[in-house]
Structures are given as C-alpha cells and as structure tokens.
Specification:
- The complex is a heterodimer of chains A (296) and B (426).
- Chain A has one domain (17-118, 138-291).
- Helices cover 73% and strands 4% of the residues of chain A.
- Chain A has helices spanning 2-32, 39-53, 60-88, 93-115, 140-162, 164-174, 176-181, 186-212, 219-234, 239-259, 265-279, and strands at 120-121, 129-133, 136-139, 214-215.
- In chain A, strands 1-4 form a two-stranded antiparallel ribbon. In chain A, strands 2-3 form a two-stranded antiparallel ribbon.
- Chain B is an alpha/beta fold and 426 residues long.
- Chain B folds into two domains: 39-155 and 296-399, Rossmann fold (3-Layer(aba) Sandwich), CATH 3.40.50.2300; 158-291 and 402-423, Response regulator (Rossmann fold), CATH 3.40.50.
- Chain B is built from 18 helices and 14 strands.
- A seven-stranded mixed sheet of chain B has the order 7-6-8-9-10-13-14, with helices on both faces.
- In chain B, helix 10 (267-277) packs across helix 11 (279-285).
- The longest helix of chain B has 33 residues, at 3-35.
- Chain B is globular, with a radius of gyration of 24 Å.
- The N and C termini of chain B lie far apart (85 Å).
- The interface between A and B is large, with 46 and 45 residues.
Chain lengths: 296, 426
C-alpha cells in the first residue's frame, strides 16, 4: 500500500511538473507552428533569474511571479523578436527549428560562461510535511506544485474556451489565413502565445529548480526532453493532450521505477513516446501539425 | 551579372582572406614561440557540464605546482604553464579534445587528468602520442593497464567498493547495507567491490539500486530502501541527483548514516547535500571514503602556502585539504621531477623516470628539495601529499584509504591495510 501511494502521489508530482512545461511548449507550437527547441534553455534561465532576483528565496509564490515574468519576457524576445524576424524573411520550419536549437545553445553556454560549471542550491532542508497518506509524505513545495499545475490547466482551459483571446488562438491554430481575413491580428495572437508559453515555462522552471534544490546551466535541457515527449504523446499543438501526456509519462515513470527498476524510469517516457509514434503518430488528440503554415 | 556569381565570388574572397589571416596568426605565433617558449602541462578534465567542477580541482592543483617549479628555475631552462583542456565529461567530446590537444601544441610535455568514465576513450590516443599521463581516473579496466605512458596513483573504483565494505565492517556497528549508486560508469564501478567486500566480511546488502541521474523525484527508490531496513547507505551520484535523493530520504523519515565515495567530493556535492539535509545533519550523518591526502606534514607545509599565493583561484580554504587539487599538485610535481632526473622533457625519455623518482634513496617532499637532491647526484623518493607512491607492474599505486569529514576533509579514520586485505578476501 505504501509503495502504491508513493507511485500515485509522486507520479502526480512529476506529472504536474511535466504538465506545466508540456502545456507551455505545445500551446505555443499549436498557435505558431514553430518548434521552439530553446524551451529548455529558457526554463533554465528563469531559475537563474529567480535565484538572483529573490536572493535564493524558496517562497514559491514569489518564485512563480519572478520566474513566470522572466519566462514571458525571454520567450517574447526569442519567439516574437528573433524567430519572428526569420519567419518574416521566409524561413521554413526546419530552418526555424535549427534557429531555436542555436538560440538554446547560445543561452545555455552564455549561462555557463557567466556562472562557470558550478552548481547553485536552494535551501530546501526546512520544508515541512503538508500531506501524509499511508505513511507517504508530500512536502509543502510538492503539494503546491500539484495544485499550481491543476490551477494552470483550469486557467488555460478557461482562457481557450471562454475568452476572445482563446477563440483567436484556436482560430489561428486552425487556419491563420482565414483568421487574418476576419480581422484578428496574427502578430498579436502570436505574441500572446509566446508570452503565455514563456510564463508557463518560467513557472515550470522555478518549481522544478526549487523542487530539485540544485541547478546549473544544463538543468533545463534534460527536463525539457521528457516534457517534450509528454507533449508529443498528447498530440503536438494540443494543450489538453499535453496534460494527458504528462500524466501518463509521470505516472508510468514512477511505476516503472517501483515495479521494474529505478534505471527504467527515464526510459519509460521514451518507450511511451515511441509506442505512440508507431501506433498513433498524431498523438492522443491532434491532427498532423506539419500540414499547417507557420504564423509570422 | 547573375546575383549568384557575385555572391559566390564574395564568399571565396572572404574565405581566402580568413585563411590568410589564420596563416599569418599561426606563422607569427610560431615565430614568436621559437624564441622563448613555455612547456605545457595539459589539465585534461571536465571544465563544463555536470562534472565541470572536477576540472577546476585539477587545475587548482596544477597552478601552485607550476608556480613552485617556475620559481625554482623551471625545467631545462623553460617555464611551465597549465593548459586547460576541456573534455566536457563525455567521450564524444573528449576524443576530439584529446586529438586537438596533441596536434595543437608543440610544447606539450605532460598531462594530468581525473575522469574515470573517459579513460577507455582517451588513453589510447594519448598513449599513441607518447604523452606521459598521471591520472586519478578510477576506471577498473585500468587496474590491468597496458599503456606504458599511463600512471595512476589512486586505486580503481572497484577497490573503492572494498574500502567502503572495510570501513563499514571495522569502523561502524552496521551490518545491513543499502547501496544507491547512479547509473553512470564511474559510480557503478564501486558496486562489484562493495558486493565482493560485503560477502568477504559478512555484511548483508539489503538493497541495491542503480538510480538514473537528474530525476525530479526518487521517492520510490527511497521507499524501497526504507522497506529494506538498511542501517547504513553507501552512495555515489552527481550533486543534483544527490540533492533530490537526500531530500526525499529525509522527507520519508528514512535518513540513516551515509557513506560516500570519492565521487561525492566537491563543493557542488556539499552544496546539494547541505541544501537537502541542512549542514548539521550532513556533517553528522555523512562520511566520505577517499584516498588519503595530507592535511599536515612536510609536503603540506609547502603546498598550502603555494596554493594561498596562487592568483585567480577561488575557495582556497576548502581546496587546501581537497583530494582533487592535492593529487594534481603531486602529479605535476612528479612529472617535473622525472623530467629533471631524465634531463629531458620528451615523454618517451622521461617516462621511465616516473617510478624511479618514487623509489630512490633520498626522501623529498617538494620540487625544490627534489631538484636539490638530483643536482647532487642523488636518487630521490618523492613523498608528496598522497604519501608514499609505489607503482605495481600495471603502473597503479594502491594508496591509503581514509574516512573523511565531508566538509572539512579532515581524516576521521584511516583504513588499515589489514582490513583492506580482509575485504579483498586475502
């Protein structure tokens, strides 16, 4: 029973982290059709900004405010500013993906050059137990992460379904040309998509950074691969799919660790990814994204 | 004229200009170098990536050694310098880095390194170039080393496992052992020795886990450990993994005494563990089994001021008793003394003197003492911060194991040769 509860509670915690990141990543792709492979580097940058701006504070609300703001700003610069410039010159999907890879590496190695190879640490030794079920303890940071992830998913759902902005985003995602013809500014919609994606990226980053306690210039890169896998499993470009994908990846990883071996936890995410790509390549929710135009 | 032709010509022009500039630069530097050049000691270690801290340990040992050597007049009339060569801790990067290191410099005379996981990829390259290499890399494959130019003053990681078992058996009351090692080559190298040593000494390994690096949670691993009722946990992982694992361990109320390996050395690991456990719990519950290096004595009294006088090195107070810098300092000193003894900086000539300078008649503890003795025609036995070095037929020296305080690096206990022999089943 204790092991089962461990799988459930910590599976939820891992899923929550992946969900925030995956939804941010896939939401932006769904609207702009730009594969932002600098997402992991932006995530890492937000941890650094929070660490320095708040002098290593582990207050999650302050961290999310600072990290989310930093992520939104950085994402806007990268997406709307730099990538947008390439798009306006007619660059295609593959070229843009290479640009984002280059940007990600530039950000990562700039951080490494400034900070050196040394790690930084948040003091998490004083966290208290917030929830205890069958002898399994979740601390306040982990429980807050789960709550924040659920709240973020609800907010995203409400924005997409209940607001004009959400309507514009869904319309742009489906048919940017038609949307342009209806008087909706694709540029404004795109900018807002980058902002929201970046905010989610920053929130994910600070929750992950404080959760693991120690971070460095390369921290976001590995995390992003798993979060990206969750997004693909759910159907690239579909936020609801990313939520489900993150839940699957997080829970299966914990279960694999407990039932088979800890060494299989990271492998399980990629087994799921490959399995979905073979059996249902469009993911849980999505149509093929490659058929849509890039939104400049 | 078609636009593409103009562009093509523009590209050619830029390319030719670039090549010309490169040629001038290299030609100029070559001309300048031939008049008075410095001898290069390559510090071939990770300076970026998850293990980037270790490279700086090696470099921070090299610099004081080179400063002392230069102060004493250098080697064969030439000053030395330490060249950082970043292997990034990854074989895919280390191989081209090694090849470039050899081809890029005509004054490369020696190399020091400390990355277990890369030896198999890089030693053959360095050996082919006849570059003398002094290493702390613990890859067990090099217990039976066949490269004439490879020397190691620390035992392989498999020996470390036996030392862990010996410490637990003879210096603690615990008999049920949990083993939590990351799934990388260096950490896993400890496991066979630990398992074999436990068997020889009557310890029981109640939980053995190979954990993947850098996961957001190790809760299931901790629950398995808790269910096994391990009395003590042996561990090695990178700092980020350790931070999460130790925090989860404490959170689950499963914290037991912890015994780490040399792979847990460093400020990054200390930061991560302290952040997870708090400093008092970390110091109270954690001990590190590592090769002995001196924190007092004649060699230390030369090393400590040299480190403190070296410019550009941070955190000297923690480095001065640190395994990484102390061993690197010894390695550079040994290479320099071997060059002096051989009257040559050519690797194929002075390589044979590496063991000779640890077997001679006159015991010396520094480069200056060794230089003075050699000048008198004496044979020397360099006893540095690592203590007596005795190379076996595979160019390995066993060293002495100690249990150190994780923060101050002060030796709390040394593991006797007799206890090690019992762990090894002799």
């Amino acid at each position: 029973m204790t092991m089962l509860m461990t799988i459930i509670l910590f599976g939820l915690y891992s899923s929550a982290l992946y969900a925030i990141g995956a939804v941010g990543f896939t939401l932006q792709f769904g609207i702009t059709n730009v594969l932002n492979l600098a997402f992991g580097a932006i995530l890492t940058s937000c941890i650094f900004v929070e660490y320095y701006a708040t002098t290593h504070s582990t207050n999650l609300w302050l961290a999310m405010l600072v990290g989310g703001g930093a992520g939104a700003l950085l994402s806007l610069i990268v997406g709307f500013g730099i990538v947008g410039a390439f798009l306006r010159r007619g660059a295609g999907g593959f070229n843009i993906a290479m640009v984002t890879i280059a940007l990600g590496l530039m950000i990562t190695y700039t951080l490494a050059a400034i900070q050196g190879p040394f790690l930084f640490a948040f003091n998490v030794s004083n966290t208290t137990t917030a929830l205890s079920i069958s002898g399994v303890n979740l601390d306040s940071q982990q429980l807050t992460t789960i709550i924040v992830a659920i709240a973020a998913m609800v907010v995203i759902h409400l924005v997409l379904r209940m607001t004009k902005l959400g309507l514009a985003m869904r319309a742009t995602a489906d048919d940017p040309s038609l949307t342009r013809g209806c008087g909706v500014s694709p540029a404004r919609t795109r900018a807002l998509a980058w902002l929201i994606s970046g905010a989610l990226c920053g929130i994910c980053g600070v929750l992950y950074g404080i959760g693991v306690g120690t971070f460095g210039p390369f921290t976001g890169a590995d995390f992003f691969i798993t979060a990206g896998a969750a997004a693909v499993v759910g159907g690239i470009g579909k936020p609801y799919g990313a939520m489900i994908g993150a839940l699957i990846v997080g829970m299966v990883g914990q279960a694999a660790s407990a039932i088979i071996s800890p060494a299989y936890a990271p492998i399980s995410a990629y087994v799921i990814l490959v399995g979905f790509l073979i059996l249902r390549p469009q993911g849980i929710f999505s149509a093929f994204a490659a058929q849509r135009e890039l939104v400049a | 004229m078609p636009r593409s032709s103009s562009l093509l010509r523009a590209f050619f022009a830029v390319g030719l200009a670039f090549l010309a500039a490169v040629g001038v630069l290299f030609g100029t530097s070559g001309a300048a170098a031939s008049s008075s050049y410095k001898l290069e000691i390559a510090v071939f270690s990770p300076f970026t990536g998850p293990n980037g801290e270790y490279g700086y340990f090696n470099y921070d040992g090299c610099v004081p050694a080179v400063n002392l050597i230069n102060k004493a007049g250098g080697i064969e009339g030439h000053q030395l310098f330490c060249q950082i060569v970043d292997d990034r801790g990854d074989p895919a990067d280390a191989v081209p880095a090694a090849q470039n290191m050899i081809s890029a410099s005509s004054h490369l005379v020696g190399e020091i390194d400390g990355n277990s996981g890369l030896l198999s990829a890089t030693v053959p390259i360095l050996c082919k170039a006849k570059l003398v290499e002094l290493s702390v890399g613990g890859d067990p494959a090099y217990d039976k080393n066949t490269c004439a130019y490879f020397w190691r003053t620390t035992p392989g990681d498999d020996q470390a496992g036996y030392a862990l078992a010996a410490y637990i058996r003879y210096d603690t009351p615990y008999r049920k052992v949990g083993a939590v090692f990351a799934d990388d080559v260096a950490a896993q190298g400890n496991v066979p020795g630990l398992v074999g040593g436990a068997k020889n000494l009557g310890l029981t390994i109640v939980s053995q886990q190979k954990v993947p690096l850098d996961q957001p949670s190790y809760a299931t691993e901790v629950q398995q450990l808790k269910a096994s009722h391990a009395q003590v946990i042996t561990t090695e992982s990178d700092p980020q993994t350790a931070g999460v694992f130790l925090a989860n361990l404490k959170q689950a109320g499963a914290l037991t005494p912890l015994v780490g390996t040399s792979g847990t050395v460093g400020n990054d690991y200390n930061k991560a563990a302290t952040a997870a456990l708090g400093s008092s719990l970390y110091v109270k519950d954690f001990v590190r089994i590592i090769q002995f290096t001196a924190t007092s004595g004649p060699a230390y009294s030369v090393w400590a001021p040299a480190l403190n006088a070296a410019p550009g090195i941070k955190d000297k107070s923690s480095l001065v008793t640190g395994f990484g810098p102390e061993v690197s300092y010894d390695h550079v000193t040994m290479e320099a003394l071997a060059m002096l003894a051989a009257h040559s900086t050519v690797g194929s000539v002075y390589n044979a003197y590496i063991p000779k300078i640890t077997q001679g008649k006159v015991i010396v503890h520094s480069f200056a003492q060794g230089e003075a003795a050699l000048a008198k025609g004496e044979t020397i036995d360099f006893v540095g911060l690592e203590g007596q070095v005795t190379f076996n037929q595979f160019h390995n020296s066993a060293g002495i194991w100690s249990a150190d305080n994780p923060v101050t690096n002060a030796t709390e206990k040394t593991i006797s040769a007799a206890d090690m022999a019992k762990a090894l089943g002799h």
